[in-house]
Amino acid sequence: MKWFCNPAAIAIACLMVPVCAPTFASMPMAADYGCVNCHGAYPRGESPSLEQLAGKMAKYKGDDAALAQKVAKYRTGEPLEHIDAHERLSTEAATRLLRWLAEGAH
Ligand code: HEC
Asked: What's the pTM?
C-alpha cells in the first residue's frame, strides 16, 4: 500500500507539511480527492500521470483568467471524457488542484 492511500499517513503528512493549509493544493489534497487513484504513480487505463498533467497545465501558470476558463470546462467534462472525480469538484477545489498542477505538482 502506498503511503498516500493510508488515511493515517495523510493525516500525519498534513500535520507536518505546511502546504496542507487550506489555500494550497498539495499531494495530500490530490490523494484526498482520489486524483492519485487514476493519475498516480501507476496511472489507471488511459489516465495521464500527474507529471503529464503538470505538463499539460503548465500553460495556465500565472494566468488566472485562462485557468478559470479551463476549470469551468474541466468541471463540465467537455471536451474531455466524463469523469465523476472531475465533475463533482467545487470550482474552488478544482481551481486549487489545477493551479497546483500548473505549478508543477510538487
Ligand atoms: C477515474 C479516474 C480518474 C480520476 C479519479 C481523476 N481523473 Fe483526471 N483524468 C482521467 C482521465 C482518463 C483523463 C483524460 C481525459 C481525456 O483526455 O479525455 C483525465 C484528465 C485530467 C486532466 C487533464 C485535462 C486536460 O485538459 O487535458 C486533469 C487536469 C485532471 N484529469 C485532473 C484530475 C484531478 C485534479 C483529479 C482529482 C480530483 C482527477 N483528475 C481525478 C481520469 C481520472
From this structure: 0.81
Q: What is the pLDDT of residues 69-83, one digit of tens each?
A: 999 999 998 877 889
- Lining residues, ligand 1, CB within 6 Å: 33-35, 37-39, 44, 46-48, 53, 56-57, 74, 80-81, 83, 85-86, 89, 97-98, 101
Q: Pick one of 3.20.20, 3.40.50, 1.10.760, 2.60.300 as the CATH number of 3-102.
A: 1.10.760
**How far is it, in rounded angstroms, from Cα 104 to Cα 98?**
10
Q: Rounded to the nearest 5°, which phi and psi values hold at 24?
A: -115, 140
Residue 93 CA: nearest ligand 1 atom is 38
